[in-house]
Structure to design on (233 residues):
């Protein structure tokens, strides 16, 4: 399998809301980035989602290594969050409540931002550059004060792109996430939610795969998969 790496970072910016220089509303669309015959990635602005990623293996055979749908409209009824961008908080909040200047209250646990999070809205396209040396696309979303019961306005964006110049790699997919609280303190924890099968999405299961993550720490969870209120030092 050809090497592919994924880079994630969270930084602060103010995104500009444009679609190819013009405002577009309530339109689900498909976009594609290509780098010769090395890589091809399709996206939809519904949830700022990756639909497919076609790359060659170590013998040059092309395969789509992302699980997803052929139609962008199918993502509106999907419940698995294939390829989505999750927020405001892409994790569990015990008891669905927190205190951060303004309390958010609930009686059940809160997971990946509830039923309608950033994953189930139409994002705008801030930038689409398919025909440059490092092709990229940037989606943006303006989250309103009180959305998902979170305080304050937040602007978020996610940029996808392809780099082929890194030594030792045929192609590198990069993902950059940005978020900025506008008028109130609020928790933000974005996540990318693509399902991968490096043998190709139709090659069978991934039960024989081994994953090694070089991490200094992990977040412990209880029997209900909720992190403790205070993490051990």
């Amino acid at each position: 399998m050809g090497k592919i790496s994924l880079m994630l970072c969270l930084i602060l910016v103010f995104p500009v809301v444009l679609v190819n220089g013009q405002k577009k509303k309530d339109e689900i669309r498909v976009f594609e980035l290509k780098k010769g015959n090395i890589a091809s990635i399709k996206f939809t602005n519904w949830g700022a989602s990756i639909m497919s990623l076609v790359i060659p293996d170590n013998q040059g055979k092309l395969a789509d290594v992302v699980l997803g749908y052929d139609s962008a409209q199918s993502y509106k009824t999907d419940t698995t969050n294939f390829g989505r961008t999750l927020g405001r908080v892409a994790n569990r909040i015990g008891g669905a409540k927190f205190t951060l200047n303004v309390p958010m209250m609930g009686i059940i646990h809160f997971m990946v931002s509830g039923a309608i999070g950033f994953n189930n809205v139409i994002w705008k396209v801030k930038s689409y550059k398919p025909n440059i040396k490092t092709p990229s696309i940037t989606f943006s979303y303006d989250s309103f004060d009180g959305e998902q019961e979170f305080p304050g306005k937040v602007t978020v964006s996610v940029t996808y792109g392809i780099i082929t110049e890194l030594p030792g790699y045929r192609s590198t997919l990069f993902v950059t996430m940005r978020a900025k609280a506008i008028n109130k303190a609020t928790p933000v924890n974005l996540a990318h939610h693509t399902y991968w099968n490096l043998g190709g999405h139709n090659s069978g299961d991934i039960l024989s795969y081994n994953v090694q993550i070089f991490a200094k720490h992990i977040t412990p969870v209880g029997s209900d998969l909720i992190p403790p209120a205070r993490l051990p030092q």
Q: What stands out?
A: Residues 1-24, 103-108 have pLDDT under 50 and may be disordered. The chain has one domain: 30-196.
